[in-house]
């Protein structure tokens, strides 16, 4: 038998899923995350799931890992001391940045400008210049460049970025500086902007490459230590890391290009959601991943997640391909509080995290959290994670009672209901960012909910968005790990090509795209992926001449072979511009960047359908829950007992090892043959599979 092991590290729990490919049988484990060293929680989870499956760790054929190491290094400000080499005259490129301040009117008064990841005192200039067309204007001065590198060596830098003007058009100067750095700064990892982001715009290219250097030592240590620890446990299978765009990359390459991992964790959830939504017959849907610390949302159209060219982590926004995920500080551990000045209830973004966690966990936490509110309302069972985490109901009531007292409410239940309503509205706002703000009506989409806390709030989010059905996949608490285990390897090549349509032929564009495809394909072939099993996706960044931004437009591979390539591309660009801005310009269209993503085959994983139900589902118990302003008795079902065709009408609670699903009054959950729960209003006819 062949096993794939998916691992996802969250802020509160580490999820591990063991998948037997030929039968689709899965084994799950959920252990506490270990923020000081994520590999400890990972190894604990792997040992637990292998023991549950009754297999030796050496039976694992692949380890597929979504990680937040790079993300946390940025958020917590504990990256490397980065040295930056720029072209003479560009030393303050990071300080000048872009003249954009987030926030509303007068936001510049209160906005604390973040410090650059490479300090000015660790930034040096070298004499030498490349023109925009790639020609050499001024040769490099070796003596001066080596002296500057020795200055950085004396500053004690831990990583080096080389970002020279117009390096995207000609990388010879950057490569030469890197060669000298290997002699002057032995052992220091070097990131070249022409490799990390071979595209125009000096600030974005420099910032992205500096971010790569900033997290590289941390990611390299983690990957190296985890690889060694896995081998010590008898797991000799290759370790692959999930990229921000939902594809896999070998661990060694991930350590070289860690800026592509900044949204590794959330991308796994979207990939897993695509897998299960397809099994249920849906290709257009919103995803909603609620964990212990935050909630991630995304939009999937035609079975493909929307991919963005900007990755945001905290105050940092870099140019890196990633699933277009929006994150809000709303999770099961989000802390509720009542500011003394306003006396208005707030929830998050502060989180109780894994240590001490919500008051219900009994680890010393006293702050009222969303989890505590759900406990008070009766929505959660007496224990989580298959009995590993016992819940202290009285501790939750004491914590939530502080909110009731601060607001003058009659009972903890009233305060808990308010906490849940507010966190639902926060998550609804995030869903609007990826739907309404992008020109999509959420009512045209289904909603896939997962994460340990997601199914508790899924029905309410469906009611707010009008997105039906709400799909709760099997094992929603470990879906990110499932996504890691069911995705494919991927590589990307890109280049800048600033050409007006009038100065470009179909053959020129087709040839340039095919060259990029060959480059990415060769790298995948070197990793053992046969050429005949590879597929390529093409994307071109376009704008009207005179515009200061581009719009990415996807291009079918078939379009490269036929006539009218530029015509097809121009029509697609106009349609997307019209959708986004409701107007078109008569200016000449202009090509800016080309990008090709080459993917290997998706794993051939069999999913055994559920047996058909012959009667009504039987509850295992009942629970007193607060719903619609009153206490009602709700049946509690074990999801493992539900069969295809079973219908659970609310109010009801459906429990399983890694999550709990709440069915509201007036709604029902239908069990699909794939194992997913489809929630919708009782009087809802239900959309066709889409």
Automatic annotation (TrEMBL):
<dbReference type="Pfam" id="PF05378">
    <property type="entry name" value="Hydant_A_N"/>
</dbReference>
<dbReference type="InterPro" id="IPR002821">
    <property type="entry name" value="Hydantoinase_A"/>
</dbReference>
<feature type="domain" description="Hydantoinase A/oxoprolinase">
    <location>
        <begin position="205"/>
        <end position="490"/>
    </location>
</feature>
<feature type="domain" description="Hydantoinase/oxoprolinase N-terminal">
    <location>
        <begin position="4"/>
        <end position="184"/>
    </location>
</feature>
<dbReference type="InterPro" id="IPR045079">
    <property type="entry name" value="Oxoprolinase-like"/>
</dbReference>
<feature type="domain" description="Acetophenone carboxylase-like C-terminal">
    <location>
        <begin position="508"/>
        <end position="669"/>
    </location>
</feature>
<dbReference type="InterPro" id="IPR008040">
    <property type="entry name" value="Hydant_A_N"/>
</dbReference>
<dbReference type="InterPro" id="IPR049517">
    <property type="entry name" value="ACX-like_C"/>
</dbReference>
<dbReference type="Pfam" id="PF19278">
    <property type="entry name" value="Hydant_A_C"/>
</dbReference>
<dbReference type="Pfam" id="PF01968">
    <property type="entry name" value="Hydantoinase_A"/>
</dbReference>
<protein>
    <submittedName>
        <fullName>Hydantoinase/oxoprolinase family protein</fullName>
    </submittedName>
</protein>
<dbReference type="InterPro" id="IPR043129">
    <property type="entry name" value="ATPase_NBD"/>
</dbReference>
């Amino acid at each position: 038998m062949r096993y794939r092991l998916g691992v996802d590290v969250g802020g509160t729990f580490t999820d591990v899923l063991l998948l037997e490919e030929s039968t689709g049988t899965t084994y799950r484990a959920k252990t506490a995350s270990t923020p000081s060293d994520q590999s400890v929680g990972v190894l604990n989870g792997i040992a637990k799931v292998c023991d549950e499956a009754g297999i030796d760790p050496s039976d694992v054929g692949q380890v597929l890992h979504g990680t937040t190491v790079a993300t946390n290094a940025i958020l917590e400000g504990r990256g490397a001391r980065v040295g930056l080499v720029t072209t003479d005259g560009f030393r303050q490129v990071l300080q000048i940045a872009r003249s954009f301040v987030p926030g509303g009117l007068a936001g510049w008064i209160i906005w604390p400008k973040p410090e650059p990841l490479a300090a000015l005192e660790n930034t040096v200039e070298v004499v030498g210049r490349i023109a925009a067309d790639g020609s050499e204007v001024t040769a490099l001065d070796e003596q001066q460049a080596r002296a500057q590198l020795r200055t950085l060596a004396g500053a004690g830098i831990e990583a080096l970025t080389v970002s020279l003007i117009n390096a995207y058009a000609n990388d010879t100067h950057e490569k030469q500086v890197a060669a000298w750095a290997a002699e002057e700064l032995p052992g220091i990892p070097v990131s070249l902007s022409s490799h990390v982001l071979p595209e125009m715009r000096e600030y974005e290219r420099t910032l992205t490459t500096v971010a790569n250097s900033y997290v590289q030592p941390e990611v390299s240590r983690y990957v190296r230590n985890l690889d060694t620890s896995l081998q010590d446990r008898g797991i000799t299978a290759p370790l692959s890391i999930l990229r921000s765009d939902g594809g896999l990359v070998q661990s060694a390459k991930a350590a070289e290009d860690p800026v592509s991992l900044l949204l590794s964790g959330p991308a796994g959830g979207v990939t897993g959601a695509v897998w299960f939504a397809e099994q249920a017959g849906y290709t257009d849907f919103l995803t909603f991943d609620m964990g212990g610390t935050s909630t991630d949302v995304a939009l999937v159209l035609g079975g493909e997640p929307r991919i963005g060219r900007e990755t945001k982590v905290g105050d940092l926004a870099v140019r890196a391909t990633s699933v277009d995920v929006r994150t809000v500080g709303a999770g099961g551990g989000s802390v509720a509080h009542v500011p003394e000045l306003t006396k208005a209830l707030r929830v998050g973004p502060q989180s109780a995290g894994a240590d001490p966690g919500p008051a219900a966990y009994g680890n010393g936490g006293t702050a009222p959290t969303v989890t505590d509110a759900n406990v008070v309302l009766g929505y959660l069972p007496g224990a989580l994670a298959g009995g590993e985490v016992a819940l202290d109901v009285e501790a939750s009531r004491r914590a939530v009672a502080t909110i009731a007292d601060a607001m003058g409410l009659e009972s903890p239940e009233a305060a808990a209901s308010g906490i849940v309503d507010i966190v639902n509205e926060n998550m609804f706002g995030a869903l609007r960012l990826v739907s309404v703000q992008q020109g999509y009506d959420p009512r045209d989409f289904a909603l896939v909910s997962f994460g340990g806390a997601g199914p508790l709030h899924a029905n309410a989010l469906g009611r707010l968005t009008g997105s039906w059905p709400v799909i709760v996949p099997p094992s929603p608490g470990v879906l990110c790990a499932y996504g890691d285990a069911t995705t494919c390897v991927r590589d990307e090549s890109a280049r800048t090509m600033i050409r007006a349509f009038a100065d470009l032929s179909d053959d020129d564009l087709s040839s340039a795209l095919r060259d990029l495809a060959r480059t990415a394909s060769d790298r995948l072939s070197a990793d053992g992926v046969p050429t005949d099993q590879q597929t390529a996706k093409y994307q071109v960044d376009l704008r009207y001449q005179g515009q200061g931004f581009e719009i990415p437009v996807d291009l079918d591979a078939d379009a490269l072979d036929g006539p009218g390539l530029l015509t097809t591309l121009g029509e697609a660009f106009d349609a997307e511009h019209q959708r986004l801005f409701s107007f078109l310009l008569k200016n000449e269209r202009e090509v800016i960047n080309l990008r090709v993503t080459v993917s290997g085959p998706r794993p051939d994983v069999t999913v055994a359908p559920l047996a058909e139900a012959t009667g009504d589902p039987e509850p295992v118990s009942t629970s007193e829950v607060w719903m619609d302003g009153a206490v009602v008795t709700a049946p509690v079902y074990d999801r493992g007992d539900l069969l295809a065709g079973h219908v659970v009408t609310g109010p009801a609670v459906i429990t399983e090892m890694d999550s709990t699903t709440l069915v509201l009054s007036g709604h029902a959950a239908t069990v699909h043959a794939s194992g997913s729960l489809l929630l919708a209003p009782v009087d809802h006819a239900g959309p066709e599979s889409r």
